[in-house]
Specification:
Length: 518
């Protein structure tokens, strides 16, 4: 790109229209301070980007105090050799016009690529005004790319084995690896907690199982108890009472049955009496019947009555026998003793006590067995946990080594990229990392050195020379081929490398009015 001319009016110190024609190679603008040298350079920048030389779009006092509108118009030739006219105004009317058509940032950006790129080339002081991080990112953006498979070959065999295979995005890989390490550390803490718990189970002291010594004695007591309990020769008072209660209950039931039979017999006798009294009337339905029917009913009723009387007789006999048994057991109850119950109670107390003792021992032994099983399981778990912990740590260490190799590869890629652009630099050296002297760890650490000195300790002329090298590097690598405006160019008398692009020098000359030296 070549700037052919600039026309401006109402822009900062230029109230009247002012025209500048530039040489396609080098133009020198001379004059005393406050003559407008910097304004000429800024007008070109504002016309393209709408900002000042340092990227500030809120330019103070842009419009001349005696003007209502400021405008700049530049004529430039693009890298394809096509001439264009760009017009920008601010004030009563704000507009951007490219080749007589309204334009926007997207249309203009194809000529200057990006704001930071254009400013870094156009104004050498702009790049050094950026934060170190921004400088580093901008340089990384313009450095020539290296195919990830080619980059993998920059590692030695041992490093390749660690990294495994070419990684398309090293930074994303390292980010994911660090996240994986955090997850592995959480898992490790979990494993350590489980291992501690398993060891506490294994190291927990345990007693031997106990043996119940009185099993033979318990068996003999139970035999004695069952013998006394089942021997009918020894009826206790309570056993007699149980039998006596059973007899009384049976008597009551039998007497109730007898009463029912008695009632039924009376009903059958009444039927017979009714037939005897009036043989022509049925005693059941009260309708007239013949003599044959009357005799049949009477005969059937007599059969039922006879059966009821026989059942009554049997029941009465049973009741008499039961009452006789009741009398015998009443006498037994009155004279029986509780010696058997007392004996059984005593035996039961001993048996119960021994059984409780046996149950306690069984419970104790069960806990001992459960503890043994828990210890055996804990031992098996411990083997698996230790194996998992070892695998976890190995995986974590491998990820850490891979991160270090990835860092190293990043640095080697940068070194390779810098080597590829070395022809564009002279005394400037770019540093993107440092090695920790204590740990040997590779860390990000951007620096721009000039003759091995850091930028902030350089003289004004050294800073400008260093900035021009960076401007030249960016211009060449991105293919912008844009112009460079060097303000305060009087601070350097020479520049080590030949300019391949259009350069506009602004030079302070004492007591001189603004003039162009082409």
């Amino acid at each position: 790109m070549v700037i052919k001319s600039l026309v401006m009016k109402g822009f900062k110190g230029f109230h009247e229209e002012y025209t500048v024609d530039f040489d396609e190679n080098q133009t020198v603008i001379e004059g005393e301070n406050y003559q407008g040298k910097t304004t000429i350079g800024e007008a070109i920048c504002w016309c393209f980007l709408g900002c000042n030389l340092f990227g500030n779009e809120k330019t103070a006092n842009l419009i001349n105090n005696n003007s209502n509108t400021a405008y700049c118009q530049i004529t430039f030739i693009d890298n394809d050799g096509v001439e264009h006219t760009l017009y920008r105004s601010k004030g009563k009317e704000n507009s951007i016009i490219l080749d007589n058509r309204k334009a926007d940032v997207e249309m203009l950006s194809k000529y200057y690529l990006s704001k930071k790129i254009f400013l870094s080339v156009y104004n050498p002081y702009y790049f050094s005004s950026l934060e170190p991080r921004e400088q580093r990112d901008l340089l990384r953006e313009i450095l020539p790319s290296i195919n990830y498979e080619d980059a993998f070959q920059l590692l030695d065999k041992s490093e390749q084995n660690i990294l495994g295979y070419p990684r398309i995005d090293l930074n994303q890989f390292m980010k994911s690896a660090r996240e994986d390490i955090k997850e592995l550390e959480k898992e490790e803490n979990n494993f350590l907690g489980k291992i501690q718990y398993a060891n506490s189970i294994i190291n927990n002291s345990s007693e031997d199982e106990k043996v119940f010594q009185d099993q033979t004695y318990l068996d003999s007591l139970e035999k004695e108890y069952n013998y006394i309990l089942n021997n009918n020769k020894f009826e206790s008072k309570s056993e007699v009472k149980v039998k006596l209660d059973d007899i009384e209950t049976t008597i009551i039931k039998k007497e109730e049955e007898f009463q029912k039979l008695e009632k039924q017999a009376k009903e059958q006798k009444k039927i017979i009496d009714d037939i005897e009294e009036n043989k022509s009337i049925c005693p059941l339905c009260k309708s007239e019947i013949d003599k044959l029917s009357s005799n049949q009913i009477k005969t059937k009723t007599i059969e039922i009555l006879n059966e009821l009387m026989a059942n009554k007789s049997d029941l009465l006999s049973e009741i008499k026998n039961l009452k006789a048994q009741k009398a015998i057991y009443t006498i037994k109850y009155n004279f029986a003793t509780n010696d058997k119950d007392i004996k059984l109670l005593a035996l039961n107390e001993k048996i119960t006590k021994l059984k409780l003792e046996k149950e306690e021992i069984q419970k104790f032994n069960y806990e001992i067995q459960a503890n043994k099983k828990a210890k055996e399981k804990a031992k098996e778990d411990l083997k698996l946990l230790n194996k998992s912990l070892e695998e976890n740590r190995n995986e974590k260490e491998m990820l850490k080594m891979q991160i270090e190799v990835a860092k190293s590869l990043n640095m080697k890629i940068i070194e390779k990229q810098i080597e590829m652009v070395k022809e564009y630099l002279d005394k400037v050296k770019l540093v993107f990392y440092k090695v920790d002297q204590d740990t040997g760890e590779i860390k990000d650490d951007y620096k721009m050195l000039y003759e091995d000195k850091e930028y902030n300790v350089l003289s004004l002329s050294e800073k400008l020379r260093a900035s021009l090298e960076i401007s030249n590097l960016i211009n060449e690598k991105v293919g912008l081929n844009g112009p460079t405006f060097i303000d305060n160019s009087e601070s350097i008398t020479h520049y080590n490398k030949e300019f391949k692009n259009q350069v506009i020098f602004a030079k302070v000359v004492e007591k001189e009015k603004l003039r162009l030296v082409v």
